[in-house]
Amino acid sequence: MIRKPFKTPFLKRPADSSEPPSKKPRLDPPTTNNSRAVSPVRKPLDRISSSAGNAAISSSPANGQSKPEVYFMVLWRKFTNKKHKTWDGDGILAVRNGYATLVDISGKEMGRSACKVDLEPGSSLSVAGKEIEVDSVIPKAEYLSGKHFLSGSFPKPVSRQEVFKKPTKDLPEISKPVVAVSKASVSKYKNPYSDRPKPVPTTAKPEPTPRHDPKAPDAIVMKRPASAPRGKQIVDVVIDPILGRHLREHQREGVKFLYECVMGMRVDSGQGAVLADEMGLGKTLQTITLIWTLLKQNPLYQVGPVVKKVLIVCPVTLINNWRKEFRKWLGNDRIGVFVLDDKGNKLSDFTMGMSYNVMIVGYEKLRSIQDELKKGSGVDLIIADEAHRLKTAKNKAALAIGSFDTDRRVLLTGTPLQNDLGEFFYMADLVNPGILGKYSAFKSQFENVIVKGREPGAVAKAVEKGQARSEELESITSQFLLRRTADVIAKYLPPKTELVLFCRPTEVQAAIYRLILDSPVYGSILSSSEASLQLISILKKVCNSPSLFSNENAVSTPSEAIASVLQAIPTDYFKWDPRASAKMQLLKTLLDHLRQETDEKIVIVSNYTSTLDLIQRLLTASSYGFLRLDGNTAQAKRQGLVDNFNKSKVEKCFAFLLSAKAGGMGLNLIGASRLVLFDIDWNPATDQQAMARIHRDGQKKQCFIYRFIVQGAIEEKIYQRQVTKTSLADAVVDSKKTAHGFTTEELRDLFRLDDNPKCPTHELLGCDCEGLGNAQVLPENEPDDGILSNATWRASEASSPDEDSGSDSDVPQLRAFTNANKVDIQAQEKKIRKINRKAQGDKKMLALMQNLHIDADEIKKGNEELDALVEDRILLDMIKEPNCPVSFFFSKTTG
Fold first, then answer.
1. What segments bear the compositional bias annotation Basic and acidic residues (predicted)?
2. What's the rounded mean pLDDT across residues 176-186?
3. What residues have CB less than 8 Å from 574, skipping those under 6 apart?
4. Ranges of each domain in the chain
């Protein structure tokens, strides 16, 4: 019997057999490379970038695999040994296969070098003999399009995460293992645990490292945000020590305040701020520190800077001052400052390029280029200097600033409120739109109520309501407005004495005044607004000097009534003679005493160039060296004049003539220790800016500031109005409780010449000191709630010889009865009138109650006690001269 050989089970049949396997599923035909077949139903796996890619992009191959091509925006320059280095231009760095290729803005290849390091924003390297600094990452598709080379601009920077969001076809293919699957493996499967929250990865994140050490001595650390987006960490923002070591305490607080405002930490619905420090407190340095911090740091770790483009808008006279301050504090190589007026500069260099981070432009120029500035990456932060110019809703510069798509806006002004609360409303609405609601509601519910509560004779209910609204307004504005006075730097500067000198008019000045007021057409002048304005100008010139009318163009296009008045004045009154003007006579005496007894310099400020011409004539006649700066001085020469005056000797340059409205806020005349404000302006901010010229950082001597005012004339009325305007501003931004303004009857006295030998302003105060310098001074931190008036009443009654004060301190003081024949009725009525005036005066002119009130006539009588109160020995010698026109003066020393 023939037996068949044994066959093991499950052996494969020969390849040439056509029968299919009996129990195995049929598979698709094999591929040509003899690999296992893959079901066409399954899609290739999606590529997922690792978390490490967000931290840095490697430019070198690893593990034999090629890395993706990466492109960076960079700044480049040739190697140089200069102390102040600047970047030569922008470029793109292409990193591929371990090599870095530098391309300039025109698309021309500038060089190629090996690159084996990981690059990220802020990295530095050398390519083809050029220094490179990486700025940011750009997508490959954007680079390959080449459109930025054609337009001469670079694309908008993107984050690293956006680079990895591009389709995987842009990345090189990596071989994938091919795995055979069955039809069952591609069927839908529902994970029963899919509804449960996914576990959070426990991978420890690196500890955030701030740019500067927050634990270093005197380090200035900004406030941290309350929270961070998911997946982000918070890092400390520390002021660069190169700036921080120069900041004083109040400036440190100012930078912190601005930072919190623009980062949205103080106002829920806005990122704007108003820095309203007085002149000389360093608003420019505080702003530069804020800009530099936001350009280089971010409270979110491994995220780009908060801002990349900053726009500074200011008067054209301050452009060079801003550029000089940036150069002073940061040098030329740390930050790029762009000024459009420079030769060869194009606006696209700022909007599209990366060499410039800050642009400085004037208010007028901004309106014509605002559309072009919005191109490119746009503007991230706007700084508006002297922002009190933006005081109406229809202001073109304010509309231009409001049109930019940025909420970060900072306004700088030394006078946040000049005339009324309406101007302040528009400033607040510009930085934080809607924070004060609509103007119609604000005017009816705040402005009108506050003003009504501060009017003289207001009822108690109106006063209470106005005070409550004022406190509420101050509470709202304190969130985004910071106001400090010059007192905060008093310890850093020498003392300053402000002197308001009231001069009796000369006979010529009084005669011209009477001829005008007695004219038959005077009534028609008061009924015409145009003629009234011209009369104000005429009377102010009479106060300065009657010689101003010797010019035929002294009054441009006078009305018929004004022309008839001028024709009635004898021409002999208009001849040049310093003795015809009380202020010219006083100035001549002051100049002679200073030049003969001291080595100090003086600054003389006026609102009129014609008045400066007369003062220049006076200086020339006395052979005193001087410099002059007014509206006709070229912009390029102004800073040179200031530097020359500060450095020159007194023998060469003794005086500096300055137009109050041509200097701007950037002129520091610290070479002088005396300043004369020759005439007065309706706007107190103009005078305050002028008086702050010499008492600034760098001053080494005690400063004396004189304000010349003709007693009883229109100048004294303007001065009184100034005091009440300042009080209103203090009430809003400084929380002081003072009165708003005069009554209608008081305003009607504007053109009247007061012949009272006593000082009208002192009489209006109702002060009891009689000009002996011992006025009851109200502390600055004590609110004006009527206590002063009551205290004065008690003091005056206690000092009365007709009152029996008693000896028992526990018994309330009562007025004693006196016999009728012992009562001085006239003295009693005089005392009552003083008390009534004081009740009105204290609230109106609270600031003047902090001055010494000195009657010059008492000094001339030989009162030695008054001599001891006068700190200015030069003024004391002048007053004792026989023909000195000073009749009364206020004195206040700070520091």
1. 13-27
2. 44
3. 546, 547, 549, 550
4. 52-170, 241-437+481-487, 507-578
